[in-house]
């Protein structure tokens, strides 16, 4: 879970963006928009949800395995922090 005020704010912004995309998709379905446009909107929605999931997953991993046991934004990460960053870089490529 995001703990800092800035992390919470970013998470809420992402959730509101996803909510807006979902509402736009619902309107498009009700209006009978072409399938290719719907698929494009669904892909954007999926990307937004995956981005949120990656951010929350990174926070969770830092809490579990990070050097301080809480999310950090230090200039000198520990070995475990660097490994988490590397893992997240790989996971983000799969979540796109």
UniProtKB/TrEMBL annotation:
GO aspect biological process, one term: negative regulation of DNA-templated transcription
What Pfam families does the database record attribute to this sequence?
A: Trns_repr_metal (PF02583)
Coiled-coil stretches are none
Q: Which InterPro entries match?
A: Metal_Tscrpt_repr, Metal_Tscrpt_repr_sf
> GO molecular-function annotation terms?
DNA binding; metal ion binding
Q: Which domain of life, per UniProt?
A: Bacteria
Name the PANTHER family for this protein: TRANSCRIPTIONAL REPRESSOR FRMR, TRANSCRIPTIONAL REPRESSOR FRMR-RELATED
Give the record's family classification: Belongs to the FrmR/RcnR family.
What is the designated name of this protein? Transcriptional repressor frmR
Q: Which organism is it from?
A: Bordetella ansorpii
Coding gene?
frmR
């Amino acid at each position: 879970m995001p703990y800092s005020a800035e992390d919470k704010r970013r998470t809420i912004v992402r959730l509101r963006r996803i909510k807006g995309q979902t509402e736009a998709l619902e309107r498009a379905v009700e209006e009978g928009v072409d399938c290719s446009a719907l698929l494009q909107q669904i892909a954007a929605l999926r990307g937004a949800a995956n981005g949120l999931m990656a951010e929350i997953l990174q926070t969770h991993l830092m809490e579990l395995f990070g050097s301080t046991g809480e999310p950090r934004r230090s200039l000198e990460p520990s070995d475990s922090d660097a490994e988490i960053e590397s893992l997240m870089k790989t996971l983000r490529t799969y979540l796109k």
